[in-house]
Specification:
Length: 253
C-alpha cells in the first residue's frame, strides 16, 4: 500500500483488501463487517503515520462511514467524512419508481451508508403521502423499514457475485468533487456531536461545513435510535479488542 502526502487539498482514501475474496470465504452471508475488520487494519497503518491528523479527508474504503468514524475517534479530526450517501439517495429515487411513485421532491438521509440509511420525508410532503398510499403502510416507521429493505435488495443486485460495484464508488467521488468545484451541497456521513456517532448530513462544498441530519418526524425516531445504537455496538465490537478504551478518546477537537 502506498500513500502520498498532499498540500492543503482534500484527500481520498480508497485502499482496500480484496473484498471479493473476504466475502467469498463466508458465502452464507455478505457481512460488510468482515471487510471492515480487514480494512481497519490497513487504515491503522496510515493513522500511525499521522496522515489523518489534519486536513479534509473523504473515505471510500468500505464500510466508508465506519472507517471514517474509526479515523475520527483515533485522531480527533472532525473533517473526516464517509462517502456513499449521495449514491444511496439516487438509489432511493429508483426504489420510489419501482413502487410506482415518480418524484423530483428533495429529501435528506440520516443513519449509515453501511447499514442502509433512512430517508427523512417532510411531514406535509406529497412524496410521503404517495409512498404510504402505494405501499399500503399504516405508519411512517413501517414505511421506513420497507424502504430500507428495498434499498438493501437493490444494493445486493449491484454485486457481481461477491465483487462490490465499482460504478457506485466512482459516482460517490464524482458527487463530492462536483460539490467542491461548484461550491454546492452533497450528502455525506460525518460526526454528530449531539449523537456522539456518525450519521448522514449535508456537506457544504464552499465552506466545508457539515450539518448532521437527525430526524424531522417523531414517528421516525425509534428507527433512527435503533440504527445509532447498532452503530455504537458495532464500533465497540470492532475497536475495543484492538485498542484500550483510553486510546479511543478524542485527543483533539
Amino acid at each position: 500500500m502506498e500513500a502520498y502526502q498532499t498540500d492543503d487539498s482534500p484527500t481520498f482514501l480508497c485502499c482496500s483488501v480484496n473484498e471479493e475474496k473476504v466475502l467469498a470465504q463466508n458465502p452464507g452471508k455478505r457481512d460488510r463487517l468482515q471487510v471492515a475488520q480487514h480494512n481497519l487494519a490497513l487504515v491503522e497503518e496510515l493513522i500511525s503515520k499521522e496522515y489523518f491528523d489534519h486536513g479534509l479527508h473523504f473515505i471510500l474504503t468500505n464500510p466508508s462511514d465506519l472507517v471514517a468514524e474509526f479515523i475520527f475517534r483515533r485522531t480527533g479530526n472532525t473533517k473526516v467524512f464517509g462517502l456513499g450517501l449521495s449514491v444511496d439517495k439516487k438509489r432511493y429515487f429508483e426504489v420510489f419508481e419501482e413502487i410506482g411513485v415518480q418524484t423530483s421532491e428533495d429529501f435528506d438521509l440520516a443513519g449509515n451508508h453501511w447499514d442502509h440509511p433512512c430517508p427523512l420525508l417532510k411531514a406535509s410532503s406529497n412524496l410521503k403521502s404517495d409512498l404510504l398510499e402505494k405501499t399500503h403502510c399504516r405508519t411512517e416507521e413501517e414505511l421506513l423499514k420497507l424502504l430500507q429493505m428495498l434499498l438493501g435488495e437493490r444494493i445486493k443486485k449491484e454485486f457481481k457475485g461477491f465483487k462490490p460495484p465499482v460504478r457506485s464508488g466512482v459516482e460517490a467521488i464524482e458527487d463530492i468533487l462536483g460539490a467542491l468545484t461548484s461550491e454546492t451541497s452533497v450528502l455525506v456521513s460525518g460526526h454528530s456531536p449531539s449523537l456522539s456517532v456518525f450519521t448522514g448530513g449535508v456537506f457544504d462544498g464552499r465552506t466545508t461545513f457539515f450539518k448532521p441530519q437527525v430526524c424531522n418526524e417523531a414517528s421516525a425516531e425509534p428507527f433512527l435510535a435503533q440504527t445509532f445504537l447498532k452503530t455504537k455496538i458495532t464500533l465497540e465490537h470492532l475497536m475495543i479488542p484492538a485498542f484500550h478504551k483510553s486510546e479511543m478518546l478524542v485527543r483533539r477537537v
